[in-house]
């Protein structure tokens, strides 16, 4: 099983219910045939050696079962029928033949970190609670994720040139006259994170929402449920939470359909607002109508943007997040391409230039 570093993968197992015997691994989308034999320890002649064919779909969370033997296999005591195919879901019971030899399936999470395979709890226990069917991680890549282009409909109101923005060097100024700061919406964050319509993912500790003013093709915010006003109040006690936020971010990227053609960064804006701590997960194309000014650009492409990993390390070693004096000044730096470092005189010119690096 090949797992991208840090990614969480699903593995499906077929588990015998009535006695203790070796569980059988069902690799994702691979056909496995079982029946009478040493693997199942079944010696009953009524059970064919090739009794059922199984094919697990770890993304969809079920196993397709096809009866190949003469005598009936059944799911929840309903006979399948020769050469027929049915779905077996977690919680359902498959009897291999004549209502005997019950099996269930279990999807387990495996975290692939540096080849070390740590098996997690069952998926049922770990599955994040989520309200709408298309919001959990499993479905993200199929449904919502491919819709992650900057939301232009929303953008028509929120991305229009924002001249109300003051010249304050802090993008996180929480003054209420600012409709839009640096791509997100300060106090509005706390409201948005509670709104099921905005939530892309949630678990016991964090919630993910799309940035309302995305500065790239993919731009998510990961927020802890616990109120943490800013990086300034982060301590060692929050280390595990910061690591979890990072892991969720990595998972989002892994599930992104464009992950192979894009690059991503995970990080925090250095100068804290009075809002809620949030981890930005942003693709590096910066292809979005909401990216409108130098402040926006520099907040994601200079040291104003603190890598999530660096923040975690800093909290580990220093017990807090230290921000260098003058960090706010970075927002005034001249425009430079973050890839080739070439100077650009205006935002439109920069955007035109970026197309070379990230063609659609
Ligand atoms: Zn921010
Ligand atoms: Zn460039």
TrEMBL record:
- Check the record and name the Gene3D superfamilies matching this protein: 2.60.200.20, HIT-like (3.30.428.10)
Which CDD domains does the record cross-reference, listed alphabetically? aprataxin_related, FHA_APTX
Q: What is its EC number?
A: 3.6.1.71, 3.6.1.72
Q: Low complexity bias located where? A: 156-174
Give TM segment ranges: none
Quote the biased-composition stretches of kind Basic and acidic residues, using this chain's numbering. Answer: 140-149
State any GO BP term from the record. single strand break repair
User: What role does it play?
Assistant: DNA-binding protein involved in single-strand DNA break repair, double-strand DNA break repair and base excision repair. Resolves abortive DNA ligation intermediates formed either at base excision sites, or when DNA ligases attempt to repair non-ligatable breaks induced by reactive oxygen species. Catalyzes the release of adenylate groups covalently linked to 5'-phosphate termini, resulting in the production of 5'-phosphate termini that can be efficiently rejoined.
Q: Which UniProt keywords apply?
A: DNA damage, DNA repair, DNA-binding, Hydrolase, Metal-binding, Nucleus, Zinc, Zinc-finger
Protein name, please?
Answer: Aprataxin
GO molecular function term, any single one: DNA-3'-diphospho-5'-guanosine diphosphatase activity
Location in the cell: Nucleus, Nucleolus; Nucleus, Nucleoplasm
Q: Which reaction does it catalyse?
A: a 3'-end 2'-deoxyribonucleotide-3'-diphospho-5'-guanosine-DNA + H2O = a 3'-end 2'-deoxyribonucleotide 3'-phosphate-DNA + GMP + 2 H(+); a 5'-end adenosine-5'-diphospho-5'-2'-deoxyribonucleoside-DNA + H2O = a 5'-end 5'-phospho-2'-deoxyribonucleoside-DNA + AMP + 2 H(+); a 5'-end adenosine-5'-diphospho-5'-ribonucleoside-2'-deoxyribonucleotide-DNA + H2O = a 5'-end 5'-phospho-ribonucleoside-2'-deoxyribonucleotide-DNA + AMP + 2 H(+)
**Species annotation:** Chrysemys picta bellii
């Amino acid at each position: 099983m090949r797992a991208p570093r840090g990614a969480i993968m699903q593995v499906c197992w077929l588990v015998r219910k009535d006695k203790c015997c070796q569980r059988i691994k069902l690799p994702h989308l691979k056909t496995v045939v079982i029946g009478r034999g040493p693997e199942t320890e079944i010696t009953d002649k009524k059970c064919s050696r090739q009794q059922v064919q199984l094919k697990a779909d770890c993304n969809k969370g079920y196993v397709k079962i096809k009866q190949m033997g003469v005598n009936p296999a059944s799911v929840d005591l309903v006979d399948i029928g020769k050469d027929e195919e049915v779905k077996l879901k977690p919680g359902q019971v498959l009897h291999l033949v004549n209502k005997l030899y019950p099996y269930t399936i279990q999807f387990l999470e495996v975290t692939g970190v540096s080849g070390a395979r740590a098996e997690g709890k069952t998926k049922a226990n770990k599955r994040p609670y989520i309200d709408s069917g298309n919001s959990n991680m499993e479905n993200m890549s199929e449904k919502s994720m491919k819709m992650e282009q900057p939301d232009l409909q929303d953008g028509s109101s929120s991305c229009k040139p924002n001249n109300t923005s003051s010249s304050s060097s802090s993008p996180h100024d929480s003054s209420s006259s600012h409709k839009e700061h640096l791509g997100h919406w300060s106090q509005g964050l706390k409201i948005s994170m509670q709104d099921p319509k905005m939530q892309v993912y949630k678990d016991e500790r964090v919630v993910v929402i799309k940035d309302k003013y995305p500065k790239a093709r993919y731009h998510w915010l990961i927020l802890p449920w616990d109120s943490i006003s800013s990086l300034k109040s982060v301590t060692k006690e929050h280390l595990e939470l910061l690591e979890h936020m990072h892991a969720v971010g990595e998972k989002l990227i892994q599930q992104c359909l464009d992950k192979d053609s894009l690059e991503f960064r995970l990080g925090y804006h250095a100068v804290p607002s009075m809002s809620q701590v949030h981890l930005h997960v942003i693709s590096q194309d910066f292809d979005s109508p909401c990216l409108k000014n130098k402040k926006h650009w520099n907040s994601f492409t200079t040291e104003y943007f603190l890598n999530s990993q660096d923040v975690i390390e800093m909290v580990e070693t220093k017990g807090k997040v230290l921000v260098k004096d003058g960090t706010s000044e970075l927002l005034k730096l001249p425009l430079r391409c973050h890839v080739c470092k070439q100077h650009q005189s205006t935002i439109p010119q920069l955007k035109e230039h970026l197309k070379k690096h990230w063609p659609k």
